[in-house]
Amino acid sequence: MTETKQPSFRIRGLANPTRFLALLDKIMIPLVILTVVVIGVGLYMALIDSPEDYQQGATVRIMYIHVPAAWLAMFAYTMMTISALGTLVWKHPLADVSAKAAAPLGAAFTFVCLTTGSFWGKPMWGTWWVWDARLTSMLILLIIYLGLIALWHAIEDPIKAGKAVAILTLVGFIIIPIIKFSVDWWSTLHQPASVFTLEGPKMDNSMLIPLMVMAIGFTLLFTVLHFKAMKNEILRRRIRSMQMQAARQVASGNRAAATQAASPSTGPSASH
Amino acid sequence: MSAMGALFVRDLKLSIRIGGGALMGVLFFLIVVTIFPFAVGPDLNLLARIGPAILWIGALLATLLSLDRLFQADQEDGTLDLLLLGEHPLELVVLVKCAAQWISTGMPLVVATPLLSLFLNVEPVGIAAVTATLLVGTPALTLIGAVGAALTVILRRGGLLLSILILPLTIPVLIFGVSASLGAVTDPAPFDTPFYILCGLSLLYLVIGPVAAAAALRSSQE
Amino acid sequence: MFGNYAGFILASYGVTAATILVLILWVLLDGRKQTKILAQLHERGVHRRSERTKAATHS
After folding, report:
1. Which residues 6+ apart lie within 8 Å of A8 measured at CB?
2. Engineered SS bond to A113: which of A69, A91, A268, B8, CB 3.0-4.6 Å?
3. Complex ipTM above 0.85?
4. Tens digit of pLDDT for each residue in A77-99?
5. b/e map of A213-237 (b: 16 or more CB within 10 Å)?
6. Does A247 touch chain C (CB under 8 A)?
7. B vs C contact (3+ beta-carbon pairs below 8 A)
8. Cβ-based contacts of C34 with chain A (< 8 Å)
């Protein structure tokens, strides 16, 4: 990530991590304020202003966090897929950072989707968990997220880890729709269609609008967290390369290099 | 093409040799099927009903557990570097290695299936169906497992991680394999629909597996 | 105000809030940690290549 001097990275402005960090510092505070306002309005609409469902009663209020969480769970994976293409095809220096920052967020929102679904299912279905097609697919998505994170931590070299994860992300992107299809197929084979679906197809505007506001709020929240996590990751890689560079200088016999690294012609390692 | 033939024969010889692990897969399959009745009870009616599922789970685990050495041994002794530098496309190399791997570990499982089905009281039509689905489905497991083996090739202990990464991706194969097997014995459920989907899945994995595994091997050796 | 299901609704919102809080804490604390290490490295005189010429004029 410190290869800022290579000319190819200057093609697009944001490809330069330093410039990206500067932009982040500029837009972060307005973005946070916007997020807080939108989620605040959304919460008011969802918890106080919106009507109860004639069939599901007040539990419909769970929908206003359950559905946005489900949306983000899939959005984060799409984001990681685009980043994976960025890593493998365009070799964009920030793509790998973006994917790594998005994975824990995606896993967390998948977890939120599953738990809120469970809290919704208990009063509606009478059990905490049903092997309903949608819940099951979400559970598999969570396992895939955790597997990707595990692969990241297993491989020490961040560049190699990023590439391995990118390949697995792309394979997952192709296979996840097939998993979804087969779980749907399996679900209809094994149990009659559930009494009602969690999200009815037709929804009144009095519920649709709060849902949209919450979805936008959650997406903004995701963006803020993602940007901040990306910044952390850029700093982490910078630190790693600086530490390795310092270690190399020490190892090359020039014990004082760490303090004299200032002049570029000090040691042979400086040219590397 | 003769180079690929030589690679195929070499891989086959290595895995059939003592310690190569080809027979281990069948043994593992046998022990998994044997311990199931201890967990669920010796009720033959119940076993007949869940028999195809047990056989599929056993075959799935046996296939995955034998995969972690697919590329690792080659990486340790330097063969992998030669294969990467060779004139043949790496995708083809992966495909040939998978074929040898399946002949030595997957096919014995398919051959053992009718015998193990008898232990589980599966009726004759069901035995034929499970064997047929495993014959079509286990190559898909080997091919998608090769991706996991390639991703974890640089890890010293990648076996567990390989299973964690690959098992979710095998769910479609498992669903349609078991559905087709059950469809053959239970009346309203169809056999042919899930079976054809299973065949389609195997063809799809035949493309994804070698391409992704080759990409993973290239990136790991840079 | 949520009828019989208040517990489930509050639990849902509670779990969501807790998860988001953990995420926020994670990014903030991680960011603080990285900034601190970076500052320590600068103090010890380790600089990035792009900053080195700048540092040379100072020392």
Report:
1. none
2. A69
3. yes
4. 999 999 999 988 888 878 989 99
5. bbbbbbbbbbebbbbbbbbbbbbbb
6. no
7. no
8. 232, 235-236, 239
